[in-house]
User: What shape does this take?
Amino acid sequence: MKKADLKDFDGQKVGELDADMWQAYYNHRFFRLLQLLYLLVKEQLGLGRLVTLRCAGKGL
Assistant: This one.
C-alpha cells in the first residue's frame, strides 16, 4: 500500500471538500456525503478503492 506524503497535502481541496460535506450533511444528502468522504480519503491518503470505501463508510 502506498503511503501518503504530507508534501502532497492540498489544504485548499480539503477545505472545499469539508465545506461540501457539511452542506450535504445539513441537507440530509447522505449518499452525497459518502461520495465526498470517499473522495477525501482517496485523494489525500491514496488508498485503494475497497479500503477507501471502508474508511469513508466509517466516517458516517
Notes: The two ends are 24 Å apart (CA to CA). The helical segments are 11-26, 30-45, 49-58.
